[in-house]
Specification:
Distance between the termini: 24 Å
Radius of gyration: 16 Å
Strand content: under 5%
Shape: elongated
Structural class: mainly alpha
Largest sheet: none
Length: about 120
């Protein structure tokens, strides 16, 4: 997970600061999503009888994480192939932002709903 995060943040950082195709706020969204994922996974693992793994995955979060990996490749393709499809990149970033926020809200909501019940 550490190497994955390093790849995502370094690629997005370069695409933001040098190439100017990734907005800075998107990197913040990725960071918030990572912090929520680690925190909620820890809480679920600590208080759940059913969870054996440290990281607890959900479908929306998985889709969002896959897009976190794909966005740098798509962005570099747009840049180096001189494609005029920055609109597609902006749409993918927007969709991934919605998915990432939905995953965060879903995980936090599940924790708050289940605080009275065992996880």
């Amino acid at each position: 997970m550490l190497i994955d995060s390093f790849f995502i943040f370094s690629a997005l950082g370069i695409l933001c600061c040098q190439e100017h195709v990734i907005p800075l706020w998107f990197i913040l969204i990725v960071f918030i999503n990572l912090v929520v994922f680690i925190t909620t996974s820890y809480i679920i693992q600590k208080f759940s009888i059913n969870s054996r793994n440290f990281f607890v995955f959900d479908l929306i979060g998985r889709i969002s994480a896959i897009l976190f990996y794909l966005i740098p490749g798509i962005a570099y393709s747009v840049i180096y192939l001189n494609l005029n499809s920055k609109l597609i990149l902006k749409c993918i970033i927007s969709v991934n932002t919605v998915l990432a926020l939905a995953a965060c809200i879903s995980r936090i909501t599940k924790l708050s709903i289940s605080k009275d019940k065992p996880l």
